[in-house]
Amino acid sequence: MDADKQEKISQVHPYLQANLAVVMDPVNGTFKFRVGEEVRHTKGGVYIITGLPSEYVLEHSREPAYAYMMIDGRICVRSQAEMEDGRFESVPEGTALAYAAEKQAADR
Question: Which three-class secondary structure state does DSSP give residue 24?
Answer without folding.
Answer: helix
